[in-house]
Design goal:
The chain is of the alpha/beta class and 366 residues long. It has 14 helices and 13 strands. The strands form two sheets. A seven-stranded parallel beta sheet has the order 3-2-1-4-5-6-7, with helices on both faces. Helix 4 packs parallel to helix 5, helix 7 packs parallel to helix 8 and helix 7 packs across helix 12. The N and C termini lie close together (11 Å).
């Protein structure tokens, strides 16, 4: 008899967290698992879930920000969990992870798994905010059977802060479906640097665009593409236009065909303040791109001098200088791109990602 497994997300979009979930679900054995996805209604995630043949359960009351309706959403979840009698509830990210894990245990669900795609308490936060989210994570930790981290740094930090016990938590690095670039990379006269992200504060996107503007003014052979949208999209577009860089910096908005953009790129850039284990970097690595990443602990697990460059997320001058000098590093960029490809094939393989989750599911409901 198949086991009923429900993955709980908040937003019905197709961003990194949602795509990682879908990568896992599409590789689970349909003879073993009956798959459900719970999220807000509408949006491309819901369309994709139905296209893949999975069952979608909409949430009426859950909101992204803290809201009095969260209490109603909490009881809505308990009702859904009880009515469907799931064998496994698998929650993703902070808010769904908090209310979802507690609701699952109160509903009597057999097993609860949570994936931390990025901790809610972060290095650069206000101290009160930091300790508030730290306390919430400690509470939620008591309601999960297994917690999965996408990088080693956050797992070890949570051990240090006594949020999770080592025996109930482990790391499974994210991976990507094999859309890998099998050709030989060559670089032309112009160097195209691409970034894929949501235009929100943790991505440091405004400062990244400002650095790109300065680099373009110093080196006429650079071109930038910033794929994505969000809160700061209009501000970034305005900055590009005010600095007359429309012909050098392209902001095409959110795109579903990310690999098509990466195929036309020479370098990938992600200058975030905080990250879990960004799928965008893995996608770029699978396309033989060297990576320029912010020098934060999670990205250090993916990027080194072998396959790219690390820059302090507050050292904007260093980033500008690095970008400006890329046209003199063509041979080095090709070698770094090859190493990116080797890493994503060997260290962050899809096989190890799928096997890691399957072993957990089988252990919990065998």
């Amino acid at each position: 008899m198949r086991k009923k497994i429900a993955h709980f997300q908040l937003l019905p979009i197709l961003s990194g967290v949602q795509n990682i979930m879908l990568t896992l679900l599409t590789h689970l054995d349909p003879e073993k698992y009956e798959i459900y996805v719970i999220s807000k209604s509408g949006g491309p995630l819901v369309d994709k879930v139905k296209e893949l043949g999975f069952k979608h359960i909409p949430l009426k009351y859950l909101r992204r920000k803290l809201s009095p309706l969260d209490i109603v959403a909490f009881f809505e979840l308990i009702r859904i969990f009880k009515e469907n009698n799931f064998d496994i509830i698998h929650t993703h990210s902070s808010k769904p992870g908090f209310i979802g894990r507690i609701a699952a245990k109160l509903a009597g669900c057999r097993a609860v798994v949570h994936t931390v795609h990025g901790l809610p308490f972060r290095e650069f936060q206000n101290k009160l905010v930091y300790f508030f989210y730290l306390h919430l994570e400690r509470i939620a930790a008591r309601f999960s059977d297994i917690t999965i981290f996408v990088n080693n740094h956050e797992r070890e930090l949570c051990w240090e802060k006594k949020v999770y016990l080592p025996k109930n938590s482990l790391t499974i690095h994210n991976s990507v479906v094999s859309h890998r670039y099998n050709g030989i990379k060559t670089l032309g006269e112009l160097i195209t640097i691409t970034s894929v992200c949501r235009f929100f504060p943790p991505k440091n996107i405004v400062n990244t665009v400002l650095c790109a503007i300065k680099a373009c003014k110093l080196n006429d052979k650079l071109r930038f593409v910033f794929v994505g949208d969000g809160k700061y999209y209009d501000k970034c577009l305005r900055l590009v236009r005010e600095n007359h860089c429309d012909d050098k910096i392209n902001l095409p908005g959110w795109q579903s065909n990310v690999y098509d953009w990466l195929k036309e790129s020479d370098v990938f850039l992600l200058y975030s303040l905080s990250e879990g284990f960004p799928i965008s970097i893995l996608e770029a690595m699978s396309m033989k791109l060297p990576i320029i990443g912010s020098d934060i602990k999670s990205i250090r697990e993916m990027v080194s001098e072998k396959n790219g460059y690390l820059v302090d997320p507050f050292d904007h001058e260093k980033l500008v200088n690095l970008l400006t000098g890329l046209t003199d590093e063509r041979n080095v960029l090709i070698l770094k791109g090859e190493e990116s490809y080797n890493l994503v094939c060997n260290k962050f393989s899809l096989e190890s990602f799928i096997n890691g989750y399957e072993k957990i599911y089988e252990k919990l409901v065998s």
